[in-house]
Amino acid sequence: MSAQQALLTILDDKIRHDRLVLPTLPEIALRVRQRADDPKVSLAQMADVIAQDPALSARMMKIANSAFMGRSIKVNTLNQAVTRIGLSQIKNVATALAIEQLFVSEYKQVQQHLGKLWRENIHVAAIAVACLKSYQATQPACVLSSDVMTLCALVHNIGALAVITEAERHPDVFGHPLFLQSVIDKAAPYISVKVLKAWGFAEEFQLAAKSWRVCRANSVPDYTDFIRLAAIERGYYKSAEEQHQLLTQYIAMQVVTVPEFMQQPNIASLYQDIHALFQ
Question: Which regions span the lipid bilayer (predicted)?
Fold first, then answer.
């Protein structure tokens, strides 16, 4: 049996018997999410939790002082940063930043694939949030949250992480990137939902992970639709005809206004601001 066939067989068996090892949420993300769910938690207490992870603390400062937050006055302390971001957003923002810790391997070939996967997730997040912010500028009734959108986009394909982790045991597979991608396309949606359920993520995250590959717009735009726009821009859909039809639907719904939506100055500028947060 080839390494490729072996990987498919093993994945199918482990999925059927619920024995696939799922990635676990970083400890700091768990602590932040637990404290954020406490209705009595204060901004100072949340800052103390984040301060336990110097890397996350630095990233939170960067977020608070970013062009994306739209403030000209710089914050100088973690308490100020947490106050500016706000308790309502801190849970998803901190989780989004911490998730990068999962995309690491000691094996060079595996790390190359994980690094590519994480960079693609960042592109998807930046495009999705930029399109959402642009849409909300003309549709103020849209109540979708940019921090939820960011996290939703970063984990929309989290099942691919489990596939690549399993593939570490079959090094020959990494010599066939197209095959590995086909395995990810087949298995990742189901695995993504299992991971997000295990992490306790809300239904909206699970729905996006399960259905973003379907070329069909929702009647009212939700988080999945903005991930689909990013998928169009990144060329993820195999059928050019279906992709064109989907984009035509979004233009008719005024989710975007032109086929080359990423060339619009407002969206392009937002994209750059959001992408820069993860550099």
Answer: none
Residues 193, 118: contact at Cβ < 8 Å? Answer: no
pLDDT tens sequence across 103-130:
998 888 889 999 999 999 999 999 999 9
C-beta atoms surrounding 108 within 10 Å: 8
| Among the ranges given (10-14, 94-98, 146-150, 260-264), the one the predictor scored with the smallest mean pLDDT | 10-14
Give the angle 127-46-29 at the CA atoms, nearest 5°. Answer: 50
Q: Tokens 């103390």 label which residue?
A: 48
Q: Which residues contact 250 (CB under 8 A, 6 or more apart)?
A: 217, 225, 228, 229, 256
DSSP state letters, 202-236 = -HHHHHHHHHTTS----SS--HHHHHHHHHHHTT-
Dihedral (C-alpha) 108, 110, 113, 117: value to the nearest 10 degrees? -120
Comparing CA positions, the residue from 49, 31, 43 lying closest to residue 75 is: 43
> pTM for this one?
0.92
For residue 144, the 8-state DSSP code is -
- The pLDDT-based confidence of 4 (bands split at 50, 70, 90) is low
CB 114 within 8 A of CB 191: no
Is it the case that residue 1 has pLDDT exceeding 70? no
Cα–Cα distance, 153 to 129 (Å, whole number): 9
Q: Any idea which of 19-28, 128-137, 176-185 has the lowest mean pLDDT?
A: 176-185
